[in-house]
């Protein structure tokens, strides 16, 4: 059971909890009606406005009914053993079902590939320990057992998993290195977007290192100290150098592929052997081919 105590608030509970729990508003409404969320032990309407004296209890997490259909797809598996998989996810592939993406996700492909997947995150997310955006390419860890899932998830929480991203930024970034320390929360006007804000936000820290400068672009390496939703994309927009081809946080989409952001490498401790493991994968062809057309400074 989770328990939340709010600070000063003037918004209705379905909106507040959608922000804090990263659930859709419809899911929070369903949980309220089913008694999965209670305020001071009572069931309340989604329109209820909680105060800082209210105790909000998450009695149980609402699991949507699902028929996750195993779907054959070509998975780029970098490594596999009895505990985990390391996948190179292509751009355009959603990690697990969600609003607007009910099927043809990586989760569907994993379920076709093997029945040996953890169920710690429920039936909609078999084996999924962490995620990257639909239009971000690159490395993803998948757990095959619940024991491996628990240990990997804890390492992610403790920031002991090292992930490195490569991105092409629009504009010529003037510094060789930078630390972006700016809290991220949900955009109040556009609920599907995140933004840098001090309201209902969480700390977010991104480290940037310039790899190469082009006439109108900058190729950078990025490391995360925290793992907030859309963190890199939001932080790059915040400093004025959005990721190229990002239609949400940058300029209008130019290429048919997604934003030029690639999860290039990962280093972690194996949950069973306790050995440090590192994996990397090259830039996708479309990414490298576009770089080859650019004029270096």
């Amino acid at each position: 059971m989770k328990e939340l105590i709010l600070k000063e608030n003037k918004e209705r509970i379905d909106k507040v909890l959608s922000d804090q729990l990263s659930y859709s508003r419809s899911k929070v409404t369903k949980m309220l009606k089913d008694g999965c969320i209670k305020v001071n032990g009572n069931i309340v309407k989604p329109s209820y406005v909680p105060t800082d004296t209210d105790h909000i209890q998450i009695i149980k997490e609402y699991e949507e009914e699902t028929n996750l259909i195993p779907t054959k797809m070509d998975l780029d598996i970098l490594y596999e053993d009895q505990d985990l998989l390391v996948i190179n996810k292509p751009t355009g592939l959603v990690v697990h079902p969600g609003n607007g993406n009910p099927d043809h996700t990586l989760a569907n492909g994993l379920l076709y590939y093997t029945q040996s997947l953890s169920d710690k995150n429920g039936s909609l997310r078999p084996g999924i320990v962490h995620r990257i955006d639909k239009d971000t390419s690159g490395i993803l860890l998948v757990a095959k057992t619940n024991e491996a899932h628990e240990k990997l998830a804890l390492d992610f929480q403790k920031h002991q998993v090292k992930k490195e991203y490569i991105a092409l930024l629009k504009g010529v970034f003037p510094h060789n290195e930078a630390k972006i320390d700016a809290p991220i929360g949900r955009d109040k006007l556009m609920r599907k977007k995140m933004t840098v804000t001090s309201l209902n936000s969480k700390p977010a820290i991104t480290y940037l290192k310039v790899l190469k400068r082009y006439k109108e672009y900058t190729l950078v390496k990025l490391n995360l100290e925290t793992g907030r939703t859309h963190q890199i994309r939001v932080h790059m927009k915040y400093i004025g150098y959005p990721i190229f081809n990002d239609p949400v946080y940058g300029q209008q989409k130019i290429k048919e592929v997604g934003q030029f952001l690639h999860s290039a490498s990962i280093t972690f401790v194996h949950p069973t052997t306790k050995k440090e493991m590192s994996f990397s994968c090259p830039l996708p062809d479309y990414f490298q081919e576009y770089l080859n057309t650019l004029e270096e400074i």
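Helices lie at 13-21, 25-33, 106-113, 146-157, 231-238, 285-291. The mean pLDDT is 90.
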